[in-house]
Amino acid sequence: MTDGSAAPQRIALLYGGPSSEHDVSVKSAASAGAALRAAGFDVHPVFVDRDGGWHLSPPTADINLAAPSPPAECLRLEQALTSLRALDPVCCFLGFHGTFGEDGRVQAALELAGLRYTGSGPLASGLAMDKVMARRIFRSVGLPVAPALELDSAVLQAPGGLEAAAACVVEAVGVPCVGKVAAGGSSVGVEIVRRREDLEATLLRLGAMWPTVLVERFIAGTELTCGVLRIQGEEVALPPVEIAPKPGRFFDYEVKYDPSLVEEICPARVSASATAELQRLAVAAHHALGCRGVSRTDAILDADGAIWLLETNTLPGLTPASLLPKAAAGAGMAYSDLLRHILAAAGVEVSAPSP
């Protein structure tokens, strides 16, 4: 990806953070970091611990789950940004997932510091992370989403509020339904309610996690996901991946990262027309939110052939088990070329992809 006759391009690889997806972020960063180093980049790990402390390490440092190796000084955000500016990387490669690193806050800080970074900007990142806001935007441009209710968690805690909210859910959405916290990733804070008697307990549990709970109608069907990548100045939809959990399971956090519990099939076993429609919707969702460079949109194909959008991820996983690399491979793209396109969309000049 780099010209061997020139000095290696310096990249700061940011990962970790205080979100529930900390461990997944480290795994994504380990995969991306190894590939970037193999491609000739000078990769400097920037680890954010679970308490929000930043650790800038030399390019020889390991990327692991516990802490930087060798240990690095713990910095506050403003100190870390000053050190990053002094490092002067061509780009900050974002390996974060979930709140803190994917919701626009880090992106805003990097922009204020004048540092280039991969992925979407602060606004698109925040909108995509907030499932309520993303749904509103999808609906405003005519993209299909399931019927849903937005519930204020404070109302659920008030006397009689929980019972009234549950009754509204039954009337407007029905059971089974899917309860979600407004912001979260890797299916953290997502529960399927299959029985009316479980609804109130689920609402109370989710309401304790986030100020807003979203309850959507349960759509039975084939779960799909479609990556979008900017290639040579245009957004290109990758082959959809079919997600087929083992019987009795759904695509929750445990299933996502345990290959024995799910099949992920690329290309998806759907018709050519369904494939084309999902790809169109994924690009439309990417544009509606204002995403940059890369995204991955999840959807359900129901028994009648209709596609319903679930959410859009602005920093898709990059682990060996992640869906975006599988989709890229399904398009005949090497993992290193996937990273090349992500960097190019951020404005980094890189050489042509491998044949």
Task: Explain how this protein is built.
- The structure is a single chain.
- The protein has 355 residues and is α+β, with helices and mostly antiparallel strands.
- It has three domains: 10-117, Rossmann fold; 128-144 and 219-345, D-amino Acid Aminotransferase, Chain A, domain 1 (2-Layer Sandwich); 148-217, Dna Ligase, domain 1, CATH 3.30.1490.
- The protein has twelve helices and 15 strands.
- Strands 10, 11, 12, 13, 14 and 15 form a six-stranded antiparallel β-sheet that branches. The protein has a five-stranded mixed β-sheet with strand order 4-3-2-1-5. Strands 6-9-7-8 form a four-stranded antiparallel β-sheet.
- α7 (161-172) crosses α8 (199-207).
- It is globular, with a radius of gyration of 21 Å.
- The mean pLDDT is 91.
